[in-house]
Amino acid sequence: MAITFRKVNFIYSEGTPFSYHALKDIDLNITLGKVTAIIGATGSGKSTMVQHLNALLVPTEGEVEVGDHTIKAKAKNKNLKDLRKHVGLVFQFPEYQLFEETILKDVAFGPKNFGCTEEEANQRAKDALKVVGIPDDYYDRSPLDLSGGQKRRVAIAGILAMRPEVLVLDEPTAGLDPAGTKSMMQLFLDYNRKAGNTVILVTHNMDQVLKYCDEVVAVKDGRIAAHTDVKSFFRDPSIMEGTNMNPPFIIRFEELLKEKGFALKDTYGDPDSLAKAISKEMKR
Amino acid sequence: MNTAVVLGRYIPLDSPVHRMDPRAKIAAMFAFLISLFIDVGFIGYAILGVIVFAGVLAAKLKPSYIWRAFKPMMIMMVFLMILNFYAIRTGYVMFSIFGWNIYSDAVFQTLYIVLRLLLMINATTLVTATTKPMDMTIAIEDLLSPLKAVGFPAHDVAMMISIALRFIPTLLEESQRIMKAQASRGVDLEEGKFMEKIMAILSLIVPLFVSSYQKADDLANAMEARGYDPDAKRVRYRRLKMRLSDWMLVIGMNLVLAGIIVLKVVL
Ligand SMILES: Nc1ncnc2c1ncn2[C@@H]1O[C@H](COP(=O)(O)OP(=O)(O)OP(=O)(O)O)[C@@H](O)[C@H]1O
Ligand SMILES: [Mg+2]
After folding, report:
1. Does ipTM exceed 0.90?
2. Contact criterion met (CB < 8 Å) for A56 and B180
3. Ligand 1, from A23, A26, A46, A90: best to mutate by most atoms within 8 Å of Cβ?
């Protein structure tokens, strides 16, 4: 399985006065088994791009290859359901997609659609709810009575229960409290590290990129501005420029130290190793 | 998935039609629609067709755009045609398909109705595409205001209409979003057994209702927070002004209506 974009262009409402060229000549190869961050300013085309991964949007030009599936422009694409079974997409603000009478049923909805038996789907739903931290006395409650953050967890569980090999998340932690954000991010990391799945994460939070991701794709005005591993991304400040983003706090701190004459050899990015490097430098 | 619904959407262009007074446009549209329902045969439709065509040209709307507004009506028209071909057995036999005789009256009747529908959609699309929803509200309120004398809540009705118009695209977008989210969870609206289809439809409708109610609530709160009071006396930021061209449109269209009535009486 591989994920490749070839010369992908996407135009919203083509042929009307509202048409908008959202993606321009995207060539991209997403490494499997890693956590890839997609960053970029508001309106740069991140959500548009990730919706190509499970063929919710079909390129206006070019093609997207995901595993055995190739989604081509201007072609009748078949077997989308099978593709969607392997690529789970969690939308921006997914809490608005809940509809079942009970939380358990809602989470089991996806697996059932993809051919699981009732029992298996329920089992998967329970597992997924446990992972996102919804206690079992909630199972029979209506998903519509939950708080916003809880709804978000249930919605994410609904995708996790499908057990996709590629998990795509569009700003999953926007609007969550810091503790909730942390546990969510840990959950996605585990989904990658423990089970070897691919995770693709749209985010505005550079600290998350630094802490949880392996690779970065920076999008600017519908084009790929950069695609590298996280460390070299933050080592090269020129990449960040023009993406309307600020580097994480600790990276800025390192930059300032270097500016003031500290001989730091590397970009560390975590407090521990940075502290060690500083104390070594101080002793010298 | 790019099935943006055209009906009722404002198209921001700069044209003489866009600049016209919305009241004039609405008044002219009514005169047009009344003319349309006075049956004077194909001459009447030809006259009205020319008028609406000129309007579309002047508004700089692409014909393809108008065409898209028709598309949803196609099924209805085909259905109508079959019904007419089946039911009407007067006139002479024009032709026959698979041994089925099609009578001339059936053909003409169908043509009448189809033309009438096309002109109707064309005219209303022309008005909604060239008038901002906000202007539309003001115009409706103005046109209804004589009824205030008998206690008719013109302002409330106008506000309701404008909110409804305003939310058509929002709800369409919302439904597309929910459709995509559920498609990611394996909902397939095209295939599947009957029960699965019911589930698929439920999975769209429930979230749509929930979010609509929420939006309605939010909007009500936002309006209240900004001091909206339906009974208060209001002044307007934007004033409408009828210019010469606006009067000409209204008078011209009413002359056409009068002409068609005369034709009807003479014929
Ligand atoms: N349905 C649509 N019709 C027309 N244009 C659209 C549509 N959806 C998005 N766009 C436009 O496409 C561009 C990219 O949108 P997209 O949602 O991909 O941005 P994004 O990078 O995800 O932004 P954000 O960080 O705010 O989520 C935006 O300029 C937006 O206005
Ligand atoms: Mg987005």
Report:
1. no
2. yes
3. A46
C-alpha to C-alpha distance for B144 and A168, rounded to whole angstroms? 52
Asked if residue B53 belongs to a domain, the reply is yes
Beta-carbon pairs below 8 A across chains A and B:
73
Residue whose pair of structure tokens reads 């108008």 in the numeric block: B66
Q: Flag whether pLDDT at B80 surpasses 90.
A: no
* pLDDT at B2 (0 to 100): 38
Neighbours of A105 (CB within 10 A): 18
Task: Give the amino acid at B190.
Answer: E
CATH of A32-45+76-243, one of 3.90.870.10, 3.30.470.20, 3.30.70.20, 3.40.50.300: 3.40.50.300
C-alpha span between B157 and A26 (Å, rounded): 49
- Which residues 100-129 on chain A approach chain B with CB closer than 8 angstroms? 109-110, 112-114
What's the CA-to-centroid distance between A236 and ligand 2, angstroms? 25
> Considering chain B, what percentage of its residues have pLDDT values greater than 90?
32
- State which H helix or E strand residue A273 sits in: helix A271-283
Cβ <8 Å between B177 and A15:
no
Model pTM? 0.76
- Count up the domains in chain B and report the number: 2
Confidence class for position A243, pLDDT limits 50, 70, 90 = low
The whole domain housing B73 covers: 1-133+240-267
> Which two structure tokens, joined as six digits, stand for B132?
């901002």
- Assess whether the C-beta atom of A47 lies below 6 angstroms from ligand 1: yes
C-beta of residue B26 within 8 angstroms of C-beta of residue B135: no
Q: In which band, very low, low, confident or very high, does the pLDDT at A281 lie, cut at 50, 70 and 90?
A: confident
| Helical (H) or strand (E) element with A132 | helix A118-132
Mutate which of B2, B18, B184 to test chain A, going by most A C-beta atoms within 10 A? B184
Q: What is the mean pLDDT of residues A27-41?
A: 94
Neighbours of ion ligand 2 (CB under 5 A): A 47
Do the chains contact at A99 and B202, CB–CB below 8 Å?
yes
B170, part of any domain: yes
Q: Interior CA angle at A151 toward A149 and A153, to 5°?
A: 75
